[in-house]
Every structure is written in C-alpha cells, then in structure tokens.
Amino acid sequence: MLVAVRALPLPDPGTPPLTGPIRLLWWQALRQKWILLTAIALGIVVFVCQAVQPYLLGRAIDEGLADGFGSALWGWAALLLAVGALLITASAIGHRFDVQCWMRGAFGMSQLVGRTVSESGDAITEELPTGEVVSAVANDSLRLAEIYAIAAQFIGSLSAYLVVAAIMLNQSVELGLIVVLGLPAVALVLSFLIKPLQQRQSAQREAAGRLTTLGADTVSGLRILRGIGGEQVFTDRYRVKSQEVRQAGVRVAGVQSLLDSLQVLLPGIFVAFVVYIGAMKAIAGEITPGELVAFYGYSAFLGWPLQIATQTLQVATRAHVAAKKLITVLRVEPAAGATPGTAPLPPAGAPLVDETSGLRLEPGRVVALVCEDPDASAAVATRLGRFDDAAELATPVRLGGTLLADLDHAELRGRVVVAEATPQLFSGTLSDELDVHGTATREDLLAAITVADAHDVLSSVPDGLDGVLPEKGRSLSGGQRQRVALARAILTSPEILVLVEPTSAVDAHTEARIAVRLAEARAGRTTLIVTASPLVLGEVDEVAFLDDGVVATRGTHRELLDRPLDAPGGESAARYRAVVGRNLDADAAPETSDTHPGVTEGAR
Amino acid sequence: MKLPVADLREVRRHTSGLMRSYRGPLTTVAVLHTLAALGGLAGPLILGNLVDAVVAGTTESYVIRVVSIGVAAIVAQAVLIKIAQRKAMVLGESVFAALRERFVETVTSLPLSTVEQAGTGDLVARTTNDVDRIQHAVRFGVPRLIVAVVTILLTVVASFIIAPQVAIAMFVGLPVMIVVTRWYLRRASPAYQREAAAYAALNGTITETVEGARTVDALRLARRRRGRVDDDLREAFDAERATLRLRTVLFPGIDFTFVVAPVAILVWGGYLISTGNVTLGAVTTITMYTFQLAGPVWELIFWLDEIQVAATSLARIIGVELVETDRTPSGEEPDDEHVVARDVRYAYREGQDVLHGIDLDLAVGERLAVVGPSGAGKSTLGRMLAGVHPPTGGSVTVGGVNLVDLPLEDLRGHVALVTQEHHVFVGTLAENLRLADVDADDEALRSALGSVDALTWAEALPDGLATTVGSGGHVLTPAQAQQVALARLVLLDPHTLVLDEATSLLDPRAARHLESSLDAVLTGRTVVAIAHRLHTAHDADRVAVVDGGRIAEIGPHDELVAAGGDYARLWESWQQE
C-alpha cells in the first residue's frame, strides 16, 4: 500500500456549528485540514506536471528531433519520463487523499446524523419526514463531502492555468493574453448552458423518481392487484408515465448534445486560433516549430482545467444546499430529556402516579388498564413513559413524588420501560435484538421467549437465536413480530414495566398461554398491561378501569364481573363488563356507527 | 421461494435481441459518431503539417488555408456531435423505456402463487434498485461507449495511415494496460457492489432508527443505534478501501501507458527522422494523437466497469420473465357455486406436507370459521380454497371444476382471498376502486362505498372520489384503507370469500370499528373466515379446528362446546362466566 489510509469512522465526529452552511463546511474542512492540505499539494504537483509536458515536448522537438538522433533527444526523453513518473506517483497518491478527504467529510456527517436520530426520540419524525432524514445520509452527507474531494483538483488546475499563462506570456505576450482572456470567455459561454441543462435534468430526475415510486407502489400492492385484477390499468398508467420520462430525457438530450458540441467547438476554435497565431510567428521566425507544438499542447491541455472549474462550481453549489439540509436535521432536539435532570432519582419501590387519570402503580403489583377507548388507555401509558417533556407539562406524572421531567432521562429509562402497541424490531441477530442491553444469559433469553410464546420464531429464523433478522424484522409475521417485541421488553427487566396491547395480533390459543406466563414472569414486580382482552385480564393481580379519562374503579377481573350494580362502584363495573364483554360477543357491543373511525379520523 | 435470476447466456441472448430490434438507430448513431470522430483527427494532423511546412519554409496564405481546413473540420465535428449525441441519447431513452415497461408488464402478470410466496421485497428491489442501476448504463453508457470505441479505432487507424513505422510505438505500454485493466475489471464489479451494499445498509439503519424512534427512546437503544451506524460506516470504509486499492493499481497502470507512449514515439520517431523515413510533422501528429487517446481509453474502462455492474442487475430483471405460469385454463365452466375440497395436501418443501388430506364441503351461503394454533396450516388451507396455489395432492373445485383450471379473470368472480393486508395505490380513490371493475360508473363506486359505511368520509375528501390517495397523496387511515379494500370486494362480487386474519392489524383499535363494514360485504356469500378472535367463531354456522395440518374438529359452535374438546376448553377460558 502506497499510503496508509486512516481507519474510519473516527470515534468522535465532533460538535459542529449549526449557524450556517458555510460555517459547517469550514468547520469540517478544519477538522480534516492536514489531509486536505496534502491532497491540495499533490493536486498542484499533478496539474503542474501535466502543464509542463507540452513545454518539454516542444523542447524535445526543437533540440532533440531537429538536431537528429542523439544525446539531446535522449536527455529530453529522460526528463519527460521523469516528469511522467512524478505525475503517475503524485496522481495515484493524490487520488487516495482525495478519496480520504471525501470519506472523512461524508462519514463524519453520516455519524452526526446517526447520533442525532438515535437520540431525538419522536422529535425527529415530528419535525421532518423520514425520507428527508434518510436522504440526509444517503445524499446530503455524500454530496457535501464532494467539495473536499474536488478541492485538490480545482486548486491544482488553477495553478496549472497560472503556470501555463505565465509560460505563454513569457514567450509571447499576444498568445499569453489570448489564453488568459480567451479561456474564461469560453467558460462563460458554456456556463450559460449549465443552468437550462440542470433544470431539464432535474425535471427528468423528478419524473423518473415519480415513475420509480409508481413502480414500487404497484409492486408493493401486487398481491392485491393479482387478487382482484386491474393489472392492465396499472401497466397502462406505468407506460404513460414511462413515456413522460422518456420525453423529459429527450429534452435533456437537446441541451446536453448542444453542450457536448460546444465543448468541442469553442475550445477547438480557440486552439485553431492559437495555432494560427503561432504558425504566423513561426514563419516570421519569432518562435520555433517546437514552441508551436508546445502552444498547441498548452491550449489543448487548458480545456481540462476549464472542465474542472465548471464541475467545481456545480459541486460547490450542491455542497452548499446539502449543508443547509443537514443543518435542519442536526438541529433537531430530543423531545424528552434535552436538559439534564435536576432532581435525584427516588429510591426503588417508589410508586408511579399519573395525576391526570389518578392511576397509581403500587410496587410489586401486576395491573391491567382497561378503557372503552383504547386510545385513552394507551395515552396514559405513553405519559408514564415520558416521551415528550413539552407536551406533558399539563399532565404531570410523578415517580415517588418527583416529576418525571425533573429526573435524569437515561436513568429513568432504566427504571421505567414503556413498550408501545406498535414497537419496531431492528435488523441484527435475533439474540442481540432480544437482549438489547446485553445483560441476559442464554437461559434468560429462552425463558423470555417462552413467556412470549415465541418458540415458532426460532424455527422461522434460520439458525434460531444466532440467526439474522432482516430490516424491521420483515421476515416475521405481524404476530411473530409482536411476540418478539414482548420478549424483548420482558428482557429489559425494569423495575416498572408498561406494556400496551401486547397480544393484539396473536390468536386466542397463543394469547391464553402468554397471559398466564406473563403474569407469572412479572409476579411481584410493578407491571401495567393496557388491554381489554379477558384472557389477560383474568390473570393479573388487579384491573383499573378508565372511564372518561380517570380511573373509575379497581378490582380483580373476577370481582368486577361479579360486582352487583348497587354495590359501590357497581355502575363502573357494569360499564367495565360492557367493554370487556364486547370482546366476547360482537353483537353485544354498545358501539354504533356514530363513532365510526372513518368519519372522525378522516376529518382530523 | 426466490425469484429466478437469469444466467449469463440468457442475458447475452436478451441483449443481442434488444440490439437487433434497434439495429437501424444504432447504425445511424455509430455512423454519425464515426464521421464526427474523423473531424476530431484534424487538429494534430494540421499541427504536424504546419510543423513540416514551417521547417521547409512556407507562406502566410498556406497557413491560413490549412488552419481554415482545421476550423471547417472542427465545425463539422461539432455539428455532427450535436446530431449524433442527441440521437444516441434519444436511443438510450427509448431502449430504457422499453426495458422498464416490459419489466413492469411481466411483474404484473406474475402467477398468483409466485406473488403470494415470493413476497414483495425482492420485486420492489428489482423494480427500484435494479432498474435504476441499468438506467445509467443504458442511457449514458451505450452512447459514450460507442464514441469511445469509434474514436480509439479511428485514431489508431489514422496513425497507421500517416506513418505506420511510427505508429507502432503507440503500443509500447499496451501490454501493461491490458494486464492491469483485466486485473481490475475482474475484481471491480464485486468490489463496487459491496460498496453499494454497504451504503444501502447504512440507509437501512438510519431508516430503522428514524421509523422506530419511539422504540429507540423507550428501550434506551440510542447507544446501540449509534454503534450500528458506526458499524455500517466501518463496512463502507472497508469497501471503499478495497475499491481504492483497485484504483491504486489501475490508475498508475493506465497513466504509465500514456507517459511511456509519447516518449517512445519521440525516441523511435527521432531515429526514423534521422534515417529519413518520416517527417518531423508525422511524429508530431502521432504524438498528439497519443495524448488524445487518453480520454476515450479512460471512458472505455469506466463504462466497461459500469456495464459489468449493470449486467448483474439486468440478470435480475430478465430473471422475472423466467417464472413459469402456474395454471392453464381447461375451458370448463362451473355448474354452480358449490366449493368442495377433497383430500387436499400441500407441501412447500417436497416431502414435508403442511396439509394432510383435508376434506371440506362448503354449503352455499354458509359461514365457516377456521380456528387453530399458529402454524397449524390455516392460512395455507385458505390459499388452497381461494385457488391461489394448486394443491400438491387432492383437489379444490367450484361447481365441479378445479379452481386452478379457471382463467384468472373468472376465478376472481368465484372466490376471493381477503387478507388484512391493505394497500392504497397511488392514484385517485376512484381508480383504486375500479381495479376490481374497470367499467364501474361513479354511481356503482358510490354504492359500493356506501355499503361498507365509507361514503361519508369519501365524499368529505377534498376532491371526493377524484382525490389522489396513497403515498404522496391524501393519507387514508388504516381503517379507511381497509374499507376501500372491502368496497373493491363489493364491486368484484365473488360468491365465496376466504378471509384470512392471520396477519391481523397490530392496532386493535381500528379493527374493532371495521366489523360492521365487513358484515355488509359478507352478507349473501359463502364465507370461510380464518379467525383468531373467538367471537368470529361463535357467530359462524360451523367451526373447523385445524391442528397439525388436519381438521381436528368441525361442527356448529354449540355442538363443539358440548363435545368438550380443545375448542370447548379454549372457549371456556374466554368466557369465564
């Protein structure tokens, strides 16, 4: 290996300034200044080597070839080879540094985005669409860093341009001026085409993006499509959109081909002009034939810095846009625990109280929370989890008398774990994804799997516990995912565990088994299960019935079922029976179409 | 079941077929580019000519004449490039459009059983990633490749015409170039694919983290997720370092060729000049040609590499065409609406039967609930009864005709499989509904929506039925999406429905509200409900308990409860009263 590349990612991506895109770009540049400066130095060597080649060639022709086959020719040839060797070496090492420049920037930014999204909680999805965050890593981090990769070439070609201009000015003021003034003029003319070209390109990209979305959408719904028909409608629609993309491509082709053509024509005319002046001077004896060749060489070479300058302009624009987008992502602050805790954590065994509903979780009890509206009971559980400090100012929850918002966020998470109704699985080996804090033994894992009745998952993931789950656990069925998430929650083994609808997607046989085992596994430890399933309710120590936002009554499932109407809390018990009973018999449900979700949710 | 991937021979056959169908435009483009490249040869030729003229002594008018020819050549080249490049790009767009349209057509006509079994992940990847990956090669690669090859060939030929003895020296570095390029190309594809996979994994990690932000927070996974990003970056770094290593060999190898070639031409040319065989001008021209070759050679190597990568994507795209059809209509017409299963067996893997000879006779208009533990074969049985898969043994018939012997359009009118999976297609609400009946008028759509209690919200949408829904459009709630699916069923109007609740909505809240909508759809049809909520079983005319691929118990709810079997025990734990 010519030059060792420092291993990435770095342990610490640093704390970037988020006040502006230029500040961010400059900050990253300073963080990698040594590789950036090395790359630039090498870039200068490469381009200057290229720039002096025509000069050496011209001298070789004049002093070598013209004087016949002799030592002078060998000398110039050796010098050309030496410069060539330097060029090859500097170019190969320079490329390595260019790529390092890019990687340092791109990986650093990706790490920063990764850190932000890992710690933001809900805030990230509330403030930005997922697609935008993913594209921050997929595109913006990479685009931003391109500016560091092209810096060496840009500065190198700029120096080459100056060197050539100096040589030519030295040899002929006229030719020198043509180069100094002519090339920027050519660049200017070409730059007029860049904008319309980019507009058409982005129009086509957008059309192509829509087409890809349409294709992906069709395929995602393919089961349905094949089940009920309508394929022809879809292929026809796809074809129409596909032809639109083609048309947009044809519009790009118009400008692109013009640009390609001008990129030949303008530098070509420029070279012809230089050759004409040069030849005139050669006839007049002002310059030698070798110098004429050198002039041709310079002017042909200068097309290259020209291209790089245009490219750099585009890269810089993109980097600026990318930096702006990255800043919006990096600015997202966590919804809960953005500031450090102010109060000490209460001792173990402290009760957890939701003041709004009056729900009080006494240590060591397994409690179920039931409500006619599952959203209302889930909302209580969410409050217990302290997911959004600002939103929950008005609905205080206290652990041992201290407001959750005043406690250290991370330490609180170790004590109270709220597993929500639609928890997400992550890709990785099954055992790793179950034991997220790496504290469980093999036996613990298997025990938790037994509680969640998830042994079937072991056989559907190749290699069982050591097998790999794909992204979001996609290979598992909905019920399997729910049971794996349940096992995962159990394994966190917190002092207080809150489970929201943990068995909603499993069949009755399985639910019955889970209910018994779960109550056993959490016996003597504070647990809240939000559910309305009688199979689960029958197994818990106590049921709290939430009516109109407050806990209306408590008792065992059995007791609530048997409580007479005229006993204290009898009316609430009757309502409880109506809610729980609906799960037994749909016809008995008090619900009518006036609470239809379509109407209420659609109107939101 | 995995979707097939085409082998190299199939890819070649397909590509050459494609080339043949575009032979005319391809030839035009090649000819135009050849002419343009001829114009590009003028510069060095004129320079050499002028060098000789200056050495021999010449006049101003000669210089003007020669330079004018040069300018004319440049103008001609520019005009030809304008035309050729446009034609080439238009050709690329056409070929790519045809390719993707054919692919989507193939995908949408895949056999039912393939679609059910293969899942959509692989297909979505092929539709997006693979199609994207070949687009670059087809749209830009093909035109650029033509230019590069033509330019290289013409430049070499021109050099040999001008001074064959000198031109030989151009090839002095060629062996190194060939060895290095072959070395590189053999390793490049897998290395760059690894790189792409590494970035895809990184994006996947970020997507997971963002979508599961709540879970990450709730379970204190932040450190793990950060670590995962770093792991992905580490892999991306290793992949980058591997490709960098390849380029660290390739770049100097090619650069070497273009450093030694001009020097060799100079020295060898110097010798030939001294012996009087060639002129200084000829040596100058060929030296300049050698410099000019560098661009197209780099382009050629770059595109060879890209095209290799594109070929693997093409193999996956063509692969979809290799799926064989799973049914051939026999032309028989069912006598009635009576669905019967006889000794149905099914094995996903040979020798491992999931269903062990199931007999089931569905009375027209009855409701049968199928219950049983997970993995008992309930869903598989459902797919057999809906004619999705041909059974490996036994038969499922409607009116005496095998379900899989019916043309698909007819099958849909007899039996439909309804899962909890719902998908709102991008398009208007009306378009979403018309999938089931292309000719349905707005009134029919309204009435279908009305029968599933969905008309109120549908008419309250910004543009009513013409509102664009689905990804990027108006977002429907899961319950609304499910109602749309049910309304489609009303339009499709099959006499038998197989409801599979196996992948029930995770969120029980929406599910509860849907029951009345569902009831409207079920009325008047034969229904097989694969249930995991027992009240469904309680309401059914008959209940079948499936266990271990067999029907363990079957009969009306009350009879099964009275019989005191498994079902009765389960029911009691539910009842508790």
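qc> The CA atoms of residues 427 and 471 of chain A lie 5 Å apart.
qc> done
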